[in-house]
């Protein structure tokens, strides 16, 4: 059964799950009526609603002048402008006096089982102040950019909060990206300092990281100083005068534990995070201070219903937005205990996650569908070995969760009783936009359910007109929300064009979706040339330009191919230069080339050599045809209208090539 038909069959059966009764009385939002009331209030008086949340959740050093000022035509968006605050002070300092000083802020589990570190709010505060002083001693000032390229170790959290403390803008680059990707991102944001580590420990292996940083920095004159954490103890080359060991910097006699925080305007930048779009160059999504933090804290509280004595675990990497908002900023702003794990779900065995849930009595667990699908394949006997009764709320993010995976998660992890929240959002939205609330929303497997209060999600046609239920269309957000992006770093044109130009007065998400008769959202996936591989967002154009940068390649077209675990996998059609013969070695070399150019996550799983690509007479590659061939279509009827193709015979050649490959 394919995904769509299984969704429909579930809907037809009307299979839905009521929220649990137990725990409802203590929930932040206790019922659907309460949700509806909050939704209506936020719709009638958005400024009042968000001002209340911002006052409740955030400590401000000075009040704002105006809650919201915006103009999507420019575009310019200001939330709580004139309001003063410091994000690190909100995540740390205020918890030193609110009774949480000795509470665990971060519980870190290293990949080796015996490596555990606990940072209380007091301890984390001290580390952050020290590293903030280190950054200052390196010449970092308010507004400067600091690049961060690190494994999932506590120093990563310390580095980000230290940036926030002194008003520097952090730009995290996921450690799985290559030297070349790191270099592009540093060049784009002109970072002054890089924070990195000797290696990443992953699935029992030590993967050197510092050599990538060295390679990247060859083209980054803006970077003056580098701080290097010793994680694995492997040999690294340190460049005299530029590179410094983290532990030596932190032990410096002149480095104090005290560091007054920088008072920031609500609209000063907090961080840049690069994400893929439909062109070759990743976009530096800019988030600011007050609105972002309000939104991160608000959504963490309402969606996950995090309570003071909960252990909350988001399994993402801090290199992605999910880690920024739901490992770091959201939970720490609330004074919660955030569990951080260095390892992977499958090592040393496919029970690692469940073992940790049992070990730390995790209450709230937030992961990705690809993880669930991979663990589901290993069989339910793995989770069955553990006591998972501490769990209260389960979440999912990154891609659509197919009903089969949802039901497995619900039954085998949630004991058939826990709410499974499918949360839809994006790097650009800063936080969760469409999601059930655990004690309020009846659940339908495969649906992200409804917009959170204050989120005006809608489906429109290509003219921007609302479409009714059960019709596919563009997913847009009609009103601003505090967590939304404020720009694309250094590229105002792209900011406008990507998000605000096509549909006047709305934010364009780039996703397709529909609503059902109950107003529930069913997300269908990207409408643009962006792939979602294991919940990681990758631009086809980025991968294509990596492929054509290889001397053997004349032309390349990349599409997504359906994959049972990853959701989508990368399928590349490659035309070679004249005189170059296709071979398995070349295929391997090209995969390695993309790995080196972008990172392992972008390497195509399949490369099909093709003499010609299906092009229209105007020279445009007809991607839908390539997607169909990759997905296994062999009948011409599947390809729709191909009358504009310059040479329709390429299709049969491509089908033959596909059958020979997979
Ligand atoms: O296509 C949607 C998909 O992931 C995209 C955003 O990717 P990124 O910016 O990397 O952020 C991922 C984590 C927030 C979206 O445009 N996506 C994310 N969550 C879901 C989803 N698709 C369906 N259902 C979801 N719950």
UniProtKB/TrEMBL annotation:
Cofactor: Mg(2+)
InterPro entries: Ac_CoA_lig, ACAS_N, AMP-bd_C, AMP-bd_C_sf, AMP-binding_CS, AMP-dep_synth/lig_dom, ANL_N_sf
Domain of life of the source: Bacteria
Record-linked HAMAP family: Ac_CoA_synth (MF_01123)
Binding-site list for Mg(2+): 548, 550, 553
N6-acetyllysine modified-residue sites: 620
PTM characteristics: Acetylated. Deacetylation by the SIR2-homolog deacetylase activates the enzyme.
GO molecular function: acetate-CoA ligase activity; AMP binding; ATP binding; metal ion binding
Biased composition (Polar residues): 1-19
Pfam families: ACAS_N (PF16177), AMP-binding (PF00501), AMP-binding_C (PF13193)
Primary role: Catalyzes the conversion of acetate into acetyl-CoA (AcCoA), an essential intermediate at the junction of anabolic and catabolic pathways. AcsA undergoes a two-step reaction. In the first half reaction, AcsA combines acetate with ATP to form acetyl-adenylate (AcAMP) intermediate. In the second half reaction, it can then transfer the acetyl group from AcAMP to the sulfhydryl group of CoA, forming the product AcCoA.
EC number: 6.2.1.1
Family annotation (NCBIfam families): Ac_CoA_lig_AcsA, PRK00174.1
Keywords per UniProt: Acetylation, ATP-binding, Ligase, Magnesium, Metal-binding, Nucleotide-binding
PANTHER family per the UniProt record, alphabetical: ACETYL-COENZYME A SYNTHETASE, ACETYL-COENZYME A SYNTHETASE 1
Organism whose genome encodes this protein: Desulfocurvibacter africanus subsp. africanus str. Walvis Bay
Family the entry assigns: Belongs to the ATP-dependent AMP-binding enzyme family.
Every AMP-dependent synthetase/ligase domain range: 100-487
Protein name: Acetyl-coenzyme A synthetase
């Amino acid at each position: 059964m394919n995904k769509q038909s299984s969704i429909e069959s579930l809907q037809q059966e009307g299979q839905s799950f009521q929220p649990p009764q137990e725990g409802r009385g203590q929930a932040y939002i206790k019922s659907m009526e309460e949700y509806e009331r909050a939704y209506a209030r936020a719709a009638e008086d958005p400024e009042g609603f968000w001002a209340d949340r911002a006052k409740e959740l955030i400590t401000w050093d000075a009040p704002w002048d105006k809650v919201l000022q915006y103009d999507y035509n420019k575009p310019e968006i200001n939330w709580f402008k004139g309001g003063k605050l410091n994000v690190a002070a909100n995540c740390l300092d205020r918890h030193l006096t609110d009774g949480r000083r000795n509470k665990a802020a971060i519980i870190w589990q290293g990949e080796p089982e015996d490596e555990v570190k606990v940072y209380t709010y007091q301890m984390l505060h001290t580390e952050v102040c020290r590293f903030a002083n280190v950054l200052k001693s390196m010449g970092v000032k308010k507004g400067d950019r600091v690049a961060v390229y690190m494994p999932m170790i506590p120093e990563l959290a310390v580095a980000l909060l230290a940036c926030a403390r002194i008003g520097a803008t952090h730009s995290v680059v996921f450690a799985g990206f290559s030297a070349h990707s790191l270099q592009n991102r540093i060049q784009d944001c002109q970072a002054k300092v890089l924070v990195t580590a000797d290696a990443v420990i992953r699935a029992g292996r030590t993967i050197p990281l510092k050599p990538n940083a060295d390679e990247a920095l060859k083209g980054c004159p803006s970077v003056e100083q580098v701080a290097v954490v010793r994680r694995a103890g492997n040999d690294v080359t340190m460049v005299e005068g530029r590179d410094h060991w983290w532990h030596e910097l932190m032990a410096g006699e002149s480095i104090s534990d005290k560091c007054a925080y920088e008072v920031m305007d609500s609209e000063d930048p907090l961080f840049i995070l690069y994400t893929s779009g439909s062109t070759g160059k990743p976009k530096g999504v800019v988030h600011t201070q007050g609105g972002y933090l309000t939104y991160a804290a608000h959504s963490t509280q309402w969606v996950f219903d995090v309570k003071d004595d909960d252990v909350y675990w988001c399994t993402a990497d801090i290199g992605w937005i999910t880690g920024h908002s739901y490992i770091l900023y959201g939970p720490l702003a609330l004074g919660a205990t955030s569990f951080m794990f260095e390892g992977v779900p499958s090592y040393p065995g496919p029970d690692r996650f469940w073992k940790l849930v049992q070990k730390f009595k995790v209450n709230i667990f937030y992961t990705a569908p690809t993880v669930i699908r991979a663990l589901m394949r290993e069989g339910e006997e793995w989770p069955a070995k553990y006591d998972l009764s501490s769990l209260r709320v389960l979440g999912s993010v990154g891609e659509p969760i197919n009903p089969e995976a949802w039901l497995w998660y619900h039954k085998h992890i949630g004991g058939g009783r826990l709410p499974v929240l499918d949360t839809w959002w994006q790097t650009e939205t800063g936080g969760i936009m469409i999601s059930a609330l655990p004690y309020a929303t009846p659940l339908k497997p495969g649906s992200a359910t409804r917009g959170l209060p204050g989120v005006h999600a809608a489906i429109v046609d290509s003219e921007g007109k609302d479409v009714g239920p059960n019709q596919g269309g563009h997913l847009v957000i009609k009103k601003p929300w505090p967590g939304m992006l404020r720009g694309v770093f250094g590229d105002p044109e792209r900011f406008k064009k990507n998000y605000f130009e096509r549909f006047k007065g709305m934010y364009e998400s780039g996703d397709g979706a529909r609503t059902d008769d109950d107003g529930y959202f069913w997300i269908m996936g990207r409408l643009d040339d962006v792939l979602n591989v294991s919940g990681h967002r990758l631009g086809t154009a980025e991968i294509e330009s990596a492929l054509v940068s290889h001397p053997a390649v004349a032309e390349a077209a990349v599409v997504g191919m359906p994959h049972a675990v990853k959701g989508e996998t990368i399928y590349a059609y490659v035309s070679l230069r004249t005189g170059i013969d296709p071979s398995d070695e070349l295929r391997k070399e090209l995969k390695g080339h993309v790995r080196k150019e972008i990172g392992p996550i972008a390497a195509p799983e399949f490369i099909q050599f093709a003499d010609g690509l299906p092009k229209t007479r105007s020279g445009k590659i007809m991607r839908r045809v390539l997607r169909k061939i990759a997905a296994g279509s062999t009948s011409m009827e599947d390809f729709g209208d191909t009358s504009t193709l310059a040479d329709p015979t390429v299709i049969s050649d491509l089908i033959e090539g596909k059958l020979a490959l997979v």
